Q: What sequence folds into this?
């Protein structure tokens, strides 16, 4: 049975990756055509447009992954059925439950793959893509990759590790120099947010450097009338969809701790967590159509129904996400309901297979 598991895994993985690459290539072409209109603005040229599109591909592939799993499994497993390989497997004593188990084992590999893509590839590549585009188009200030954002205000140098939407900053360090450019003071804040006309720093650790010694101060909350212009952050803010699940969780916890609205980030967190699971659900949805194609000549119709079901899942998912935000539904409920409904539909359909 190990040989069977490996063969089915190869079929599912190769089919999914083939469809994913085709869809990603099509979207990359569409994105590139869309960027042509921006070429010539500032220093934005064709090479910048190509770099932007290529660096945006991981995000595109991540968003397309559940759809690619559905289409890839329908095509690849459908080929097994049309070539009578599935008939031979069942005649050899492989039950429906055993075949489903092999397919879902392959699905677990896909879950790990898309989870790794969402956590390790999408955030840095999307940030770099936005930086290249914003810098070339000369849109305010660029977020400097892994080194954060640096700014200067007279003898004060400011480093921001993270820029979030809504004028919220993370890991802020302020270095104060004297006229001889000697370091006088270092202030580090875990977070900062803009309130009306001033910045509010939280969880501050300050080092005051004297001639003989360095003194330390710890301050829970401090207001700064002047720090950075809020206009600087119109471009460089990290959107929730581009953040890793770990960062989304930490930031939503920070918002809750400071009695700020965190529903948008908690929803993004649960979407990030459930996207790999939805890939597994797409496999479950595809399986009844594969077995059904053995008993009927309407293979094309079954494929079309399966694809429409996948599109329906996508639309239901987006609709529930937006309704959850409008009506204040629990983020976990909004993100999980479409996945649970599709899993139930797939499970019921699979139980009818003999």
A:
């Amino acid at each position: 049975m190990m040989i069977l598991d490996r063969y089915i895994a190869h079929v599912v993985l190769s089919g999914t990756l083939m469809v994913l690459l085709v869809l990603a290539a099509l979207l990359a072409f569409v994105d590139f055509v869309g960027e042509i209109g921006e070429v010539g603005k500032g220093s934005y040229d064709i090479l910048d447009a190509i770099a932007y599109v290529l660096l945006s591909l991981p995000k595109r592939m991540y968003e397309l992954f559940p759809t690619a799993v559905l289409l890839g499994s329908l095509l690849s497993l459908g080929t097994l059925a049309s070539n009578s390989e599935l008939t031979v497997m069942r005649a050899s004593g492989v039950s429906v439950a055993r075949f489903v188990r092999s397919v879902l084992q392959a699905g677990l590999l896909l879950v790990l793959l898309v989870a790794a893509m969402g956590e390790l590839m999408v955030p840095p590549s999307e940030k770099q893509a936005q930086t290249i585009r914003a810098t070339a188009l000369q849109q305010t200030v660029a977020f400097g990759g892994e080194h954060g954002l640096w700014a200067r205000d007279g003898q004060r140098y400011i480093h921001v590790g993270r820029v979030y939407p809504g004028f919220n900053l993370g890991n802020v360090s302020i270095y104060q120099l004297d006229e001889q450019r000697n370091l006088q003071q270092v202030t580090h804040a875990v977070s900062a947010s803009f309130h009306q006309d001033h910045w509010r720093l939280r969880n501050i650790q300050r080092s005051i450097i004297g001639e003989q010694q360095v003194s330390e101060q710890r301050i829970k909350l401090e207001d700064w009338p002047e720090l950075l212009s809020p206009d600087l952050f119109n471009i460089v803010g990290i959107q929730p969809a581009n953040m890793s699940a770990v960062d989304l969780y930490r930031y939503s916890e920070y918002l809750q701790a400071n009695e700020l609205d965190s529903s948008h980030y908690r929803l993004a967190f649960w979407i990030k967590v459930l996207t790999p699971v939805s890939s597994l659900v797409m496999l479950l949805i595809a399986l009844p159509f594969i077995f059904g194609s053995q008993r009927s000549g309407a293979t094309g119709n079954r494929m079309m129904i399966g694809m429409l079901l996948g599109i329906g899942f996508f639309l239901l998912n987006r609709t529930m996400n937006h309704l959850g935000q409008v009506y204040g539904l629990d983020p976990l409920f909004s993100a999980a309901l479409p996945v649970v409904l599709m899993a139930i539909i797939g499970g019921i359909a699979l139980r009818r297979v003999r």
Q: What stands out?
A: Residues 140-145, 293-297 have pLDDT under 50 and may be disordered. The helical segments are 2-36, 46-82, 85-91, 96-136, 245-257, 263-295, 299-327, 331-351.
